[in-house]
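To whoever picks this up:

The nightly regression suite flagged Propionate--CoA ligase as changed. Nothing in the input moved, so I suspect the structure step. Input below, exactly as stored in the fixture:
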Amino acid sequence: MTYAAFYQQSIQEPATFWDQEAKLIDWKEPYTQVLDYSRPPFAKWFVGGQTNLCYNAVDRWLATQADKAALIAISTETNTENVYSFAELDREVQRMAAIMLGLGVVQGDRVLIYMPMVAEAAFAMLACARIGAVHSVVFGGFASKSLATRIDDAKPVLIVSADAGMRGGKAVPYKPLLDEAITLAQHKPAKVLLIDRGLDPMPLVAGRDVAYATLREQHLDAKVPVTWLESNAISYILYTSGTTGNPKGVQRDVGGYAVALASSMKHIFGGNPGETYFATSDIGWVVGHSYIVYGPLIAGMATIMYEGTPIRPDAGIWWSIVEKYKVTRMFSAPTAIRVLKKHPSELMKKYDLSSLKALYLAGEPLDETTSSWISGELGVPIIDNYWQTETGWPILSVARGIENTATRLGSPGVAMYGYKVSIINENTGAECAANEKGVLAIQGPLPPGCLQTVYGDDQRFVQTYWSNFAHEQLYSTFDWGIKDADGYYFILGRTDDVINVAGHRLGTREIEESISSHPQISEVAVVGVEDKLKGQVAVAFAILKHPEMVVSEEGRRALEAEVMAVVDKQLGAVARPSRVHFVAMLPKTRSGKLLRRSIQAICEGRDAGDLTTIEDPASLLQIKAAVIA
Ligand code: ATP
Ligand code: MG
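Regenerated output under the current build:
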């Protein structure tokens, strides 16, 4: 079948299409209705069906591949490597589930998981899924204030955490931050379950804190039956990255999510049981949920959980893992590849990468230079894919499991099946013509796997996502894009990142892409800054590949002029940044996304705004210094 035909069927007959896909997972009780869309924009998938995420990820593989690797936990921080077979994973998950039940967790209760990248974090997620508790994983890098906000929103009865994580060889304490967060929060969890890694002292609060190791000893032979859940029960809550402000609590279902993951593993990633999948993300992000924990396991694959940076002990570490575990599919982010690019590629060439079939990248725009470089190094297809925490699986990509569709540089691909994607003119609400800029929107119902609502706030779900266009109720992605004549999409930036220069609307992304084509530039952020004359002007902050080569003020000016000339030539003078500042670091969220709103605020002399998700606040000082200079 061609991909075009496959896609058309998913759009024209969604019920028939997804009924077919639903066979990829195991059901305890069949559903009575594939889709209930009687109350748009709320979609219910596989109504009445009973299933369980943990059962599909673990139990169902016990009959055929109990002894095959399921979870491979590697830490280059503590120098440990543990391989759990499906049978061993099953035992650990049942122990964890028994502990949770013993601590009073019942079906529907929220369990907040604030953990480093250790196997126990996956056990905890799967244990929640097993007993019907709702997990809310909060990225371990967040400090107490961010954590407190999420505790108050999710209201967990139990928090699972650890003494510390480790990064770059240094212990990063978790427990003191957690204690502080619980003090700050209005809501108090009844119990806190703590994994002691022996990295940092961990005093327990009497009556509240319990040690995992002790309880595990008591539950070594625990058997906890699967709690069968109606397909539309809540599986988890996950907060968005907070790039554009206050994070939203994305709420996901059980059956639709399981089907979407099984289906995407087959058609988009083309993974097979017995193979190894390596996603370099963190369990605190959506990629960690969908493609570290649930997706690969549901597909019967071994999955790698990696604690560490891509460059320690050296920049060959990921490729040594690929060689050792014969990884067939890898998933990472452009940021990580840019980091690797700064290191000698011999480190990569040392390893046998012949098992690897493709590298998937997502999370932020993939610039052509980075994409071409890594493709040249690895000799495998680089597959960009575009999606959001909200959708849970790719909106745009290429479904190579269906047809060997070509990728196109600069484009994350075509609309994935189930997503009725269009580019909408935000003023008229009409669909844009080919190559005309607009907002990337999706017509309801969203396919299985996407958010059910914003946790505890249906109103915010409707208001935020479905009320942005005249005439029609469409889901807004808040990203600008264009679709070319062949159906390939290009993402041009976020809707709040658009620049309006004397009436011309420019995507920050277009200008950034143009500037990065200059051979001296390794990374760049462009923001729109208020200007009396033109309304707004573009201002660029760029990181140089070889900053040591630009020493004099004269040299700096010359380079700035060169960069401007590149933009003039490629996009025209309206897009030319009024200034190109050279900095050593750009402000990013913990998930690696550029915080343009903060850069913009500083340029306009305002407060940098909500910085709870920033990676390194020092990056803002650089921006400030550059602007003042
Ligand atoms: P918030 O919604 O809280 O501001 P966020 O949008 O950064 O945070 P995520 O859900 O993690 O949170 O990120 C999704 C966004 O990341 C997309 O809407 C898009 O802007 C960007 N993105 C993801 N993948 C790609 C890609 N392949 N190319 C370009 N942009 C991408
Ligand atoms: Mg978003």
